[in-house]
Design brief:
Layout: H1 9-22, H2 34-41, H3 45-57, E1 61-62, E2 71-72, E3 83-84, H4 85-96, E4 101-107, H5 112-117, H6 119-126, E5 134-142, E6 152-153, H7 163-190, E7 193-201, E8 207-212, E9 216-221, E10 224-231, E11 234-241, E12 247-252, H8 257-275, E13 279-280
Parallel strand pairs: 4-5, 5-7
Antiparallel strand pairs: 1-2, 3-12, 4-8, 6-11, 7-13, 8-9, 9-12, 10-11
Helix pairs in contact: 1-3, 2-3, 4-6, 6-7
Length: 284
């Protein structure tokens, strides 16, 4: 083949991906040697090495070592279907509490889902099933001083009062205090080094995001709906979201380059907000 018609590393990688997808190459099979692949595709061995490196980064090859043809990797565990926050978050948090050092970062409208879901790993700690050495939880919630995009009244009231905002603020503070208390209590009961920090966002987050040990990102969209709720002897008609029903989509760092990039960029986004435009949040 002349140079103009030679396959690129990406093209060779795509051909091998298709062979894996179709079952022509199965988990555990050895690939041909680099020399054999170079002859098959009519390219230099360096081109083959680049193609194999791309497959390795995608998690499709295992036992990659110099001088030994790699094997086709076992497929990643089947990804669960997206689940509502109240169903999917607790088991993911419990798994995240298994390492010695736990780091949970969250961006949400209130701490309700996180407060309830953390009850599961806390219970496992009390039962002696898991025992982290340290737990660091950072949570960003909307500031009390901003005009929220939601929840908002369907119709603005007279006199400038906003009971919908007052209700949200009371919930935000109460849930965050319970979450903080339950985690900090682990210091006294189990000697775990626990830190819980809050920062105030200058905007209403359109999504909820949970980052678990920098290895997994769970994201869910807040779906706006019109609803009524009784609060302090009043019926509030509002545009609001039911965050506990938001479907959580999981991205695992080890699941391939695309998931890895999403987790890494989500962590960078969180850290940038935490360190720049957010402010101290007081739970009062």
């Amino acid at each position: 083949m002349n140079d103009g018609n030679r396959l690129s590393p990406q093209e060779i990688a795509d051909i091998l991906r298709e062979r894996i997808r179709s079952g022509e190459l199965r988990a555990g099979d050895r690939l041909p040697t680099q020399a054999e692949l170079a002859v098959e595709f009519g390219v230099e061995r360096g081109t083959v090495r680049q193609a194999l490196r791309a497959l390795q980064e995608d998690g499709l090859l295992s036992n990659v070592s110099k001088g030994s043809p790699p094997r086709i990797a076992e497929p990643a565990p089947a990804r669960e279907e997206p689940q509502p926050t109240m169903v999917g978050l607790a088991p993911r948090l419990t798994k995240a509490f298994e390492p010695a050092r736990v780091r949970i970062d969250a961006v949400c409208l209130t701490a309700e889902s996180l407060m309830l879901a953390l009850g599961e790993p806390v219970r496992h700690i009390h039962e002696g099933r898991i025992r982290p050495e340290s737990v660091d939880v950072r949570i960003m919630l909307p500031s009390r001083d901003i005009n929220l995009a939601f929840p908002v009244p369907v119709e603005e009231g007279d006199g400038g009062d906003n009971p919908v905002h007052d209700r949200w603020l009371a919930m935000r503070n109460a849930q965050a205090r319970v979450l903080q208390h339950n985690l900090l209590a682990l210091r006294a009961t189990h000697g775990i080094d626990v830190r819980v920090s809050f920062r105030a966002l200058p905007f209403t987050p359109p999504v909820k995001l949970y980052l678990l040990n920098g290895e997994e990102a769970l994201i869910g969209y807040y779906m706006l709906t019109r609803r009524e709720e009784e609060w302090e002897s009043r019926t509030l008609e509002m545009f609001d979201v039911l965050g506990s029903q938001s479907l959580l989509f999981s991205f695992l760092e080890r699941a391939g380059r695309r998931d890895q990039a999403f987790v890494e960029e989500s962590q960078k986004w969180f850290d940038a907000l935490w360190e720049t435009i957010t402010t101290d949040l007081t739970l009062s």
